Structure formats: C-alpha cells, structure tokens
Amino acid sequence: MVVNNNITKQGELLSTFNDSSSKRTPIQSALTRPLVEAIGKCFLLLSGTTEEVQDPNDEAKTLPRAVYEVRVVSSRTRLPIGTVLTVKIKGSESVINEEENKKLLLGLEKNKVVAFDDLSHWNFNGNEGLSASNIRVLEVSPQEAMNL
Fold first, then answer.
1. Cβ-contact 132, 117 below 8 angstroms
2. Which of 83, 6, 7 is nearest to 38 (CA)?
3. Which of 25, 107, 130, 144 would give a disulfide with 140, using CB separation of 3.0 to 4.6 Å?
4. What pLDDT sits at residue 8?
5. Strand pairing of 58-72 and 84-90?
6. How far apart are CA 119 and CA 117, in angstroms?
7. Contacts (Cβ under 8 Å, ≥6 apart) of 144
8. 77 to each of 48, 57, 69, 137, how far by Cα in Å?
9. pLDDT tens track of the chain, all 148 residues?
C-alpha cells in the first residue's frame, strides 16, 4: 500500500520541498499545507486597534483598517500553540475599544475566541501578513477552541 503524504484530505497537491522553519516568516514556512492547517480556524484575541491608512485612489483621504493581535490556540496546527499573529481588515474599525483592550491585557475581561472570514496570507519581499474581510467573536472557551 502506497501512502502519499503530499496530498491533503481535499485532494490538493502539496509542495515537494522539505519542511523548513523560519523565525521571520513562520506562516510561509508552515504553508507546505493549506492555511487552515498551518494556523487554525479560531484564535484567542489579544488586542484590537484601528489605524488610518491612505486611500490608494485619493491621497487626500484615509481609510480605517482594523488590526488584531491573536494567539494560535488550536492544538492541530503546524504553528505552535501560543504563536502570536496579526490580522488586518481593510475598511473596518476594530470591534475592540481602548477600554476593552486594557481589560484584556489585565485579565479583567473574559477571554475572547475569534474567527476571521476570508482569511488569506500574503508574502512579499521577505515579509508576510494575514488579511481578512470580517472578524467574528465565537461563543466557545479557549479550551474548546484548542480542539477545533
């Protein structure tokens, strides 16, 4: 019986390159498999902020961009539990305000498990990042999220 470890459950052909590990681009290194297998489906929310970025179509305008710091909580990912990731959502403001950020930091706010819609990874000139179209706060505990 021949076992092919280069095909996902969905039948996608994987990279034939050796697994590698990089501190500068950990997501890209883990992407010898699909993104969900690399980083998981849900995350522990650490913080959320809104930054203003220049509108590419009009230099006089700025657009909001939500920036979320999250922690990998799934025990079934290629990245280790606890890895901190940044996810950005263009044209959106953070669902977390300054006061909630402080409470999360001090442990006064209940941990929030979140998921992102249309989560995608980019890699350009040795840098990488994650983008999404929306964030959802899930009604699950971090312990439950570890098994999702």
1. yes
2. 83
3. 144
4. 56
5. antiparallel
6. 5
7. 113
8. 23, 38, 18, 20
9. 444 455 555 555 454 444 455 677 777 766 656 788 888 899 999 999 999 999 888 888 999 999 999 999 988 888 899 999 999 999 999 999 999 999 998 989 889 999 999 999 888 888 889 999 999 999 998 888 888 7
Query: 3-state class of 145 per DSSP?
Result: helix
What strand order describes the sheet that includes 84-90? 120-124, 127-131, 84-90, 58-72, 42-55, 113-117, 134-138
**Encoding tokens for residue 134?**
């929306």
Residue with tokens 């021949």: 2
Tokens of 145: 């999220």
Q: How far is CA 146 from CA 44, 81, 101, in A?
A: 10, 9, 23
Q: Structure tokens of 30?
A: 């883990």
DSSP of 65-132: EEEEEEEE--TTSSSPTT-EEEEEEET---SS-HHHHHHHHHT-S---EEEEET-EEEEETTEEEEE-
Placement of tokens 């305008």 in the chain? 61
